[in-house]
Amino acid sequence: MVKFATKGAFFEKLDFSSIDEKxxxxxxxxxxxxxxxxxxxxWLDFASNLPEEEIERIIKxxxxxxxxxxxxxxxxxxxxxxxxxxxxxxxxxxxxxxNFEILYLGNTLSSSYxxxxxxxxxxxxxxxxxxxxxxxxxxxxxxxxxxxCYLEEKYGHEYLKDAIVxxxxxxxxxxxxxxxxxxxxxxxxxNNIGGRFSVLTPVGLLPIACAGIDIREFIRGIRDGExxxxxxDYRKNPAYLYAINRYFLNKVGKYPVEMFVTYEPxxxxxxxxxxxxxxxxxGKDGQGLLCTAASxxxxxxxxxxxxxxxxxxLFETILHVDKPVLDITVPYDKDNLDxxxxxxxxxxxxxxxxxxxxxxxxxxxxHTPATIVSIDEMTxxxxxxxxxxxxxxxxxSAYMLEVNPFNQPGVEVYKTNMFKLLGKPGYENK
Length: 430
Ligand code: PA5
Fold this sequence. Notes:
The protein is an alpha/beta fold.
């Protein structure tokens, strides 16, 4: 279960009573599904309503792909891949010991990156999971076409049917039509769940299962989250308490930036997922915190100076995992030329933990308060539970700012400009 704590002088004199009434209304709005954008609250109880047959079909497909191919390319952008990557990296690490490789494409328009992935795949038998709720997003659509043409040229058209799995809307968009025409296996993204809340649907479940991770445990963690973070009194609900604290840091402390921090590089993609979840949900009508991410102690050697003594513009939210996935002991060296024998025999995780405590003290005693979200260890159960915690916190946070958590109208502006520049039919006069 997720634990929540705060550290720093800022929190000592905080009095939440001024927002009690508003917070109560917001928590009722979520529970009663009466707030703006409520048609997209399907994630609230999706996991507990997920039929066993659907879980079985996902696992069966994942096993088919694992058994018949050497790699899976997940083609998607934003909510269609960030949660997946977050779970897979947190569980399997950045250099996984698995014969079945997972790669990501369609999350960029970079020709160099795309060409390099193709080079990397040259001698591998790979499958594709194309994920797009709208079925029309340019980045994944272009990457999907490139990958398909590559496979078709190499193995012929027949190869595509078994090698491609499409995860998309039930009936809307170009992807579902193509999947029906070509006979690809298809999984549905429910239309009451937006992209950034979709990791708990087949969007995340299929590729996570393909990575050999126990999705039943992941789902169990989410289901338990539905109960654990249902309390309507925000003072008793850790997800809402986190949301209220960051609301005060923003509105009272005048901090415009929340920096998510991890001490485990393999959890950095969770922070990337969080950036999207919160920035896209809150950042509208001139409101919201800018969420950014850092990996310590790495970034202490680049951003640490600024955090300690620079413009006081940010607070930290530390994602703390009590127990590391793996550990290693510092060896003894009889010559001790590096003067490190005072650390010999000690676990690297202990040194990392001391760095965490020391940094927390240093930053919070200056002008950088911290909120701390912790789990005891990174398991499929805990990460499911953690993600649900952040879903609840995000909905609550956005409603506290009186914005619709579930749309992203601002993202369309660059797309319209780009389509005009590219000469997309229908965009000539926009
Ligand atoms: O949260 C969102 O809705 C977005 O970030 C989408 O996930 C992203 O734009 C990709 O959209 P789609 O899945 O329709 O290709």
